[in-house]
């Protein structure tokens, strides 16, 4: 397979055109071609969640998505989550405060999942958070702290939303 | 209950010196995607390597056809056992080096998944596609699939693991109450979320390796020896490690292949182990079995303990997973006998996985103690307190510190153990059977040596520099806290640089020893830096303190002043400006005088030969814990859920309780997975681990884990380490699986002696 294709992606608000083989996954496009290594490769089988990114605002496993499938779509990675001046997203800040990670390798995926989990309305209780965060494995075993961080961030984001309304 | 007090050794006024609950100083990088792991360093002209695994488990490769692979688009190189890479054998962990050449690929096949070739191409996709085109012809022989294979036999006795005192057989025959059982643990795997791999790049005869490493110096030594390079020509870089748990402490055959390929091609090579290959490119925890017989008097005093254990190893290497590791340490028993055997099978050589030995050992003895408690009609906590060992039964030495009674008592109190109804199947909620179980755990204090460089910069900031590593334990943070306290500066004024073999030396981040080793080294270096700064402030002609008449100075919160506060007070940055210094560097190591030379340092940083055993000296030193677990078992379906855990730990003084609690909980969570989910399943026909992926080899997910309460009952242990801490990282998993098995017995009346406890064993 030597054919190449040009894929146009909007990554963290920036337009990118990639000349790649059509079999390149979104994950490898980010990591190997664009140098955006915040998105992690844990299994390349859609089993661990470390590669979770947002495509058009929804959580997606970048290892099971060909880059070409994201043609013309908006991709948000962990590098695009903090504010323009580096201010942390409430989920990021809560992860730091609650020590919701150790080695940090699953963390970008956990955070991208958590942001989506809250946005989906699936952070209403600890039970619900556990269930909807179970697609992201953490071998260091930070789960109880991840639940606490997501709960805290969900409360904060809800309060922010209410204040804005 | 937390009896650890923050010790204000320096005068760090921000309250976050040693013992403070400081958040990770490397945390921001990890939550923003800015932490660069091994395979993420960008190099020009990079190429990609993919391994080709054997599909047979035993036999000999007779031919390998690489023509199709070599002709595939983008392929640059294919290496097979036919290629002599000109490598020399490297030393083992203890620094012993055999003569001869080293061949990372060989035609003799001893396990399914053994690499037989490597393909290097311009892109990952091209290398992956071409690897599938390599054709191997073999003469297959019958493999021994695992410990349960009838052809595996009883194995060979490991002489130095035979332990005995008293007359165990005779004592057992004479006691009124005895229990006997065989306890088994399957192959288990590390499952670091970051898979292994590396990028290798050459500049002339200098080799740089980007590889996740629990031991930068030890691994750099292997690369240097393979390629016949002076040690300092190799730099191994590993600032972040995506989980290790024992699996990232050794340079491996694939590292040799990547570096040799890079040399041949004159281009950097990235070799990423795929997730399925993480089950065979290096070994997980060996499968084990152990028979235990316990005998006691009617009042519950242990009289005899007989232990006969075995673990699998490979056909070509020796790995001892000592199921007798915890057995002699836990209880006072007058008659004891333990033997261990090694059973060679067709597997990759197993390796160290969180609490090697201690973990399966505790599953045996702590399950057996529960069986004994039931047979005696004595509460399991009471039985453990009754048989508490006042000194180390094996070495006869006094414990340095042992807050195990306190752990059992505090854990029971917090759990509400006194409300337990003793009979199995006596606690339920509708169709849900409820069970409460307890077990204890231990891990030895291993001492070793470390080295650190402290730099005070002209901007007043302090650098801590060491080749030690942080794989999530919190090394960056606790070393910043240690330096901050010793120097008298706020933690946020300290920068820590780790994970590079060209930096000052450190022991392996294994055996739960690194924190104790490195806080000691950093404390020593930072204290010396403080003395040097004060001496300069008192003596430099341009210093405002020269005429102060003080004979020492105080440093607190980054300010330097006379002790009584009656003289000048200026910031460290201002002092550096006044005395015209850009940088003050102080390097110190913790080696004894006899080893404080080049040979001693090389030994200390690149071998394990200077590690000190827990009983080396006047004391026996260990961390301790007690786990209390509640399970809920569906009576009809046999599904087990862990619904509550309370664990109490004696790990001495805690350098940062926030990070320690995370590690303890992480160990407990891995233990929950071990108890209920984890098992490498072997196809008996092909001796292949068939569930070699994360969808089939199950580890605990978020939904499997309840709230976990952890309690520290430790006291500073001055014998264990400079700052009084004992090991933290491994003890957390030890005893979790038996506590769960004991809770399952309490819930259901069924004793499961082979892990994991899956539903078919309960219905």
UniProtKB/TrEMBL annotation, chain A:
InterPro entries: 2Fe-2S-bd, 2Fe-2S-bd_dom_sf, 2Fe-2S_ferredoxin-like_sf, 2Fe-2S_ferredoxin-type, 2Fe2S_fd_BS, Aldehyde_Oxdr_Iron-Sulfur, Beta-grasp_dom_sf
One Pfam family from the record: Fer2
Any one GO MF annotation of this record: metal ion binding
Protein's UniProt name: (2Fe-2S)-binding protein
Annotated signal sequence range: none
KW Transport (keyword) present: no
Gene3D superfamilies for this protein: 3.10.20.30, [2Fe-2S]-binding domain
Originating organism: Paramesorhizobium deserti
PROSITE patterns listed in its UniProt record: 2FE2S_FER_1, 2FE2S_FER_2
2Fe-2S ferredoxin-type domain sequence ranges: 5-81
UniProtKB keywords: 2Fe-2S, Iron, Iron-sulfur, Metal-binding, Oxidoreductase
PANTHER family: OXIDOREDUCTASE WITH IRON-SULFUR SUBUNIT (PTHR45331:SF2), OXIDOREDUCTASE, IRON-SULPHUR BINDING SUBUNIT-RELATED-RELATED (PTHR45331)
Automatic annotation (TrEMBL), chain B:
Pfam families reported for this sequence: Ald_Xan_dh_C (PF01315), MoCoBD_1 (PF02738), MoCoBD_2 (PF20256)
SMART domains (UniProt xref): Ald_Xan_dh_C
Superkingdom of source: Bacteria
Key words of the record: Molybdenum, Oxidoreductase
GO molecular function: iron ion binding; oxidoreductase activity
Residues annotated as domain Aldehyde oxidase/xanthine dehydrogenase a/b hammerhead: 32-142
InterPro entries to which the protein is assigned, alphabetical: Ald_Oxase/Xan_DH_a/b, Ald_Oxase/Xan_DH_a/b_sf, Ald_Oxase/xanthine_DH-like, AldOxase/xan_DH_MoCoBD1, AldOxase/xan_DH_MoCoBD2, AldOxase/xan_DH_Mopterin-bd_sf
Region (Disordered): 1-21
Annotated transmembrane regions: none
Biased composition (Basic and acidic residues): 1-12
PANTHER family: ALDEHYDE OXIDASE 1-RELATED, XANTHINE DEHYDROGENASE
Protein name: Oxidoreductase
């Amino acid at each position: 397979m030597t054919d190449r294709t040009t894929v146009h992606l909007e990554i963290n608000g920036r337009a990118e055109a990639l000349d790649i083989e059509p079999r390149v996954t979104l994950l490898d496009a980010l990591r190997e071609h664009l140098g955006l290594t915040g998105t992690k490769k844990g299994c390349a089988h859609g089993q661990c969640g470390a590669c979770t990114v947002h495509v058009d605002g929804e959580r997606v496993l970048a290892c099971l998505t060909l880059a070409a499938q994201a043609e013309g779509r908006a991709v948000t990675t962990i590098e695009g989550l903090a504010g323009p001046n580096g201010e942390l997203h409430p989920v990021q800040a809560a992860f730091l405060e609650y020590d919701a990670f150790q080695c940090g390798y699953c963390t970008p995926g956990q955070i991208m999942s958590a942001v989506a989990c809250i946005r989906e309305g699936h952070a209403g209780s600890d039970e619900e958070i556990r269930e909807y965060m179970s697609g992201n494995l953490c071998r260091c075993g930070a789960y109880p702290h991840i639940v606490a961080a997501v709960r805290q961030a969900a409360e904060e984001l809800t309060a922010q939303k209410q204040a804005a309304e | 209950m937390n009896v650890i007090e923050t010790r204000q050794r320096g005068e760090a006024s921000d309250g976050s010196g040693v013992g403070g609950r400081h958040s990770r100083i490397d945390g921001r990088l990890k939550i923003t995607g800015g932490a660069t792991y091994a395979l993420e360093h960008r190099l020009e002209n990079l190429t990609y390597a993919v391994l080709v695994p054997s599909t047979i488990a035993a036999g000999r490769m007779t031919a390998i056809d690489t023509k199709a692979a070599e002709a595939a688009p983008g392929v640059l190189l294919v290496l097979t056992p036919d290629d002599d890479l000109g490598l020399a054998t490297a030393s083992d962990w203890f620094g012993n080096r055999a003569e001869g050449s080293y061949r990372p690929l060989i035609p003799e096949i001893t396990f399914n998944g053994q690499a037989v070739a490597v393909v290097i191409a311009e892109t990952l996709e091209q290398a992956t596609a071409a690897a599938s085109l390599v054709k191997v012809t073999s003469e297959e022989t019958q493999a021994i699939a695992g410990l349960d294979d009838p052809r595996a036999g009883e194995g060979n006795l490991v002489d130095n693991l035979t332990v005995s005192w008293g007359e165990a057989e005779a004592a057992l025959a004479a006691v009124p109450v005895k229990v006997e059982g065989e306890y088994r643990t399957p192959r288990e795997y590390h499952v670091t979320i970051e898979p292994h791999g590396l990028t290798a790049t050459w500049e002339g005869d200098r080799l740089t390796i980007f590889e996740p490493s629990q031991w930068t110096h030890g691994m750099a030594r292997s690369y240097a020896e393979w390629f016949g390079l002076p040690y300092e020509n190799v730099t191994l870089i590993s600032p972040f490690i995506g989980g290790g748990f024992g699996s990232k402490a050794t340079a491996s055959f694939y590292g040799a292949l990547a570096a040799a390929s890079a040399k041949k091609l004159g281009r950097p090579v990235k070799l990423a182990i795929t997730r399925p290959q993480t089950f065979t490119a290096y070994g997980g925890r060996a499968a084990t079995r152990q028979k235990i017989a316990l005998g006691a008097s009617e009042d519950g005093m242990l009289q005899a303990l007989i232990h006969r254990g075995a673990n699998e190893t490979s056909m070509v290497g020796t790995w001892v997973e000592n199921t007798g590791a915890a057995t002699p340490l836990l209880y006072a028993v007058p008659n004891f006998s333990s033997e261990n055997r090694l059973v060679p099978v067709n597997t990759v050589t197993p390796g160290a996985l969180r609490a090697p030995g201690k973990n399966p050992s505790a599953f045996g003895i702590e399950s057996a103690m529960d069986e004994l408690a039931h047979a005696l009609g004595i509460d399991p906590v009471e039985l453990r307190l009754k048989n508490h060992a006042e000194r180390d039964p094996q070495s006869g030495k006094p414990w340095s510190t042992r807050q195990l009674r306190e752990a059992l008592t505090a854990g029971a109190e917090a759990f509400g153990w006194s409300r337990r109804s003793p009979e199995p199947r006596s606690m339920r909620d509708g169709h849900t059977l409820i069970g409460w179980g307890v077990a204890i755990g231990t891990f030895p204090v291993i001492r070793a040596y470390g080295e650190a460089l402290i730099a005070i910069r002209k901007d007043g900031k302090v650098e801590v520099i060491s080749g030690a590593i942080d794989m999530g334990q919190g090394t960056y943070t606790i070393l910043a806290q240690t330096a901050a306290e010793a120097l008298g500066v706020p933690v946020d004024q300290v920068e820590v640089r780790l994970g590079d073999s060209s930096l000052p030396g450190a022991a392996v981040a294994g055996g739960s020893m690194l924190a104790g080793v490195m806080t000691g080294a950093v404390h020593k270096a930072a204290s010396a830096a403080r003395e040097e700064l004060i001496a300069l402030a008192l003596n430099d002609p341009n210093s405002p303190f020269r005429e102060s008449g003080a004979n020492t100075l105080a440093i607190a919160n980054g300010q330097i002043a006379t002790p009584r506060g009656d003289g000048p007070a200026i910031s460290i940055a201002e002092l550096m400006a006044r005395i015209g210094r850009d940088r003050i560097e102080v390097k110190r190591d913790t080696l004894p005088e006899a080893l404080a030379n080049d040979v001693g340092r090389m030994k200390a940083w690149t071998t394990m030969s200077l590690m000190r055993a827990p009983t080396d000296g006047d004391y026996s030193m260990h961390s301790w814990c007690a786990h209390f677990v509640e399970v809920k078992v569906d009576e009809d379906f046999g599904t087990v859920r862990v619904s509550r855990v309370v664990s109490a730990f004696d790990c001495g003084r805690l350098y940062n309780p926030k990070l320690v609690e995370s590690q303890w909980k992480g160990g407990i969570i891995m233990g929950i997975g071990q108890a209920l989910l984890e098992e490498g399943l072997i196809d008996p026909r092909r001796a292949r681990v068939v569930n070699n992926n994360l969808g089939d080899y199950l580890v605990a997910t978020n939904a499997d884990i309840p709230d976990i309460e952890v309690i520290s009952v430790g006291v500073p242990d001055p014998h264990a380490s400079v700052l009084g801490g004992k090991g933290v990282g491994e003890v957390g998993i030890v005893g979790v699986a038996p506590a769960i098995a004991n809770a399952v017995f309490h819930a259901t009346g069924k004793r499961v002696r082979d892990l994991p406890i899956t539903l078919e064993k309960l219905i």
